[in-house]
Amino acid sequence: MSDVKVTIGDAGEVLQFGPTRVRILEDGSGTENRISAITSMMAPHTDGPPSHVHLMHDEAFLVTSGVLRFMMGDVQRDAKAGDYVVVPPGAPHTFVNASDEPVSFLTTFTPAFYISSFRELAQLNATGRLNAQTLAEVLTRYATVTCD
Asked: pTM of whole model > 0.85?
């Protein structure tokens, strides 16, 4: 029988990307890599990642407060608290907080292996080595490509 895992309150590994804070709730170790989950808080007027495509995993977002603007190819959509956005493999996408208020959201990844990219990117960011080239290199290792 598997053990139930509970992440209490603000527990969990916290990663900082400039004005964006990510907290890892599940890295896949408790789900045999079937699913992973993070919470994120983006400050007002903060860009997210460059437009990108996941080649083998689904990504789903639940906005818990504020408004998160999604760009999916030529389509732009604001998701507000309570809105749920599912991005299947192969769909180009990115997101930003274009508002004057912080935005918080839950993101899941299925399968879970992609979560380790956040750890690698946070380490590069902390050492000042995160740039477009190193970002693309890391994402490629996790079946993700940036869109130019």
From this structure: yes
What is the tens place of the pLDDT at every residue in 25-70?
A: 999 998 999 999 999 999 999 999 999 999 999 999 999 999 999 9
Cα dihedral sign, 148-111-138-94: positive
CB 136 within 8 A of CB 130: no
Range of the domain at 129: 14-146
Q: What is the CATH number of the domain that holds 51?
A: 2.60.120.10
- Please tell me the total count of domains within the chain: 1
Q: Taken in order 102, 135, 130, 28, is the CA torsion positive or negative?
A: positive
At which residue do the structure tokens 């699913």 appear? Answer: 35
CB half-sphere exposure, 75, CA atoms < 13 A: 7
- Pick the closest to residue 115 from 86, 144, 81, 88 (CA basis): 144
